[in-house]
Each structure stands twice: as C-alpha cells, then as structure tokens.
C-alpha cells in the first residue's frame, strides 16, 4: 500500500499501473489523483470516448465493467474504466457485495494492457481502516491510501488553490486557515471559495477566516452522533469529555448535536420518499461529501428515534438553564438518554 505522495512520485517518473484501488476519507483528494491519471493517460480530444464510469452502489455484477475494460480504446493507446464509491470493498457485506468483490478479485489479473481500471472506496469515518478485502487486492492492483495532509504540504496545496482562483493570501492568514481545518481537500476547497467570494475586492484578513470557517468540531460531532447511533455509551461519553476539555461549552455542543439530528431527520425523511442523493444535497444545501456522510449516518436511526432524540435535546436545553447539576453531568445524562430511548 502506498500513500498519495508515493503515488505522485510514481506518476512523475512515468510509471502508470494497470489497476488502482484508492481508499480513504477524502473523496476530493482521490478525485484529484484520478484527474492526474486522466491527464497522463487520455488524449484531451477523446476523453469522453475513453473514460467509462460506473457507480459502485448500482452494480449488480461486473459484466458491464469487464465489457468496458475489454473494449478497445478509440483513437488512443489506453482507456480508463472507473468504479466510484465501490462500497462492496468495505468490511460489511451482503450476498451481492461478496459476489462483486469475488468477481473483481478474479478479473484483476486479466485486465488488458489497453485499459487502466480505477476503483475507489470512501471510509465512513476516521476510525475506519482499509478492509481485508482491499488489503487482499495488493499485488494485483496498486492500493493507494488517501491520508489527510498536514503542515507545509497542506499550506502549499491550499496556497495553490487560492492562487488558482486569482486570490493571494498572506502567510499568517494561510497558517491560521490551515490550523482551523482538517486536511480534507473537499472541505478546504469549499471554504476557499467562500473566503474568495466574501473578500472579493480586498485582501483576506484573520477576521474573515474566523468569521466564515467551519469549526473542526463538525467532524467531532459526526463522530459523537455515530457513537450514539451505535449505542456505545462509554466511547460517546469519552468523545463528549474530549470536546468539553477543548473548551467547548455545553450549550454549544448541545446546539451542534441538535443541528446534526435535525439534518439526519430531514435526510431520513427524504430517503423514505425515494429522493435521490443529488436531490437531497440540493435540498439541504450542503456539499456532496458532507451530504454523503449524513446519508450513511442516517442509516443508523429510524424516523421515530430521530424525533425522540430531538425531543430529548429540547428537554435538556431547558435543563441546562434551570438545573443545579453541573454542565458536564447534564451532557452525559443527555447522551445516555438518547442512546437508551
């Protein structure tokens, strides 16, 4: 298994492999590397004819994928076949996912030299690791793990994003910007866009960054609500205590938990009305990668559980103002009540 930097080094040396399996949390970073492969492999005028894409969630078998791989490229030496969001590479499996994985595993050694097959799988949360399925593909495919980047490497990439939008940013402001965000390039690009639009005719200031940036706690709330959905009481309380230890106030944490449950309720309701993912993203007006996380998280709850969790949040919102119990104890009781309701 290699990381993104090692992948980039191989590409710079002109080494293009027959099959790539990307995995990690940052879908935008993975898509960026696929675009690098696209530019290296495909002639610009024939991209549409030689780049075939399949949604991993909609595959019943690999017949159409194999057929695309076996079909000769048009006016080009090679073509690319992509399976995106290949959830059959995760640990959890039903009969169809197991069948898809077995078909893929058998076919990898037969990919023709005229095709580069690319597959990617997005982790559900930052605790997830490459599955046994993914690890077993090493040797037949180049497995690339998309880790978040930090430090100078992150600052360099972020500065390039600002410059690509015709906006410069000072070193102090750049360091502040990077310190307030995780290394998720999808989130970063969204925040850069917001800042550029906000400070369209002037330099970006520290005040702009503090005003507009999403806090890192968003990820922590995703994790906390995940633990609530899994009914992991001890881990949820530890996560809560970590947030409070960082200096977050109880009412702010409660607000974020309540907001998360409201979003999950809207998404769960939309899914039950058979709305597509694109329609849901458009309706809740959040970036696709956040929407995807929320859709996956909503599967851990029923509508009634989400309504119950919101009622509990409202009750404890009143308790925080009136009860004599300390805030930490009240928040722990809130978590226990949502998990046992």
Description:
With 341 residues, the protein is of the alpha/beta class. It has three domains: 2-146, 3-Layer(aba) Sandwich (Rossmann fold), CATH 3.40.50.300; 155-212, Helicase, Ruva Protein, domain 3 (Orthogonal Bundle); 217-340, Zinc Finger, Delta Prime, domain 3 (Up-down Bundle), CATH 1.20.272.10. The chain is built from 17 helices and six strands. The chain is globular. The two termini are 43 Å apart. The model has no long low-confidence stretch (mean pLDDT 85).
Quick overview:
With 341 residues, the chain is an alpha/beta fold. The protein has helices at residues 4-12, 27-41, 47-50, 63-70, 95-107, 132-136, 151-164, 171-179, 185-198, 206-212, 217-229, 233-245, 250-272, 277-284, 288-298, 303-322, 327-340; strands spanning 2-3, 19-24, 51-55, 79-84, 115-122, 142-146. The model has no long low-confidence stretch (mean pLDDT 85).
Quickly list its features.
341 residues, alpha/beta, Rossmann fold, Helicase, Ruva Protein, domain 3, Zinc Finger, Delta Prime, domain 3, 3 domains, 6-stranded parallel β-sheet, globular
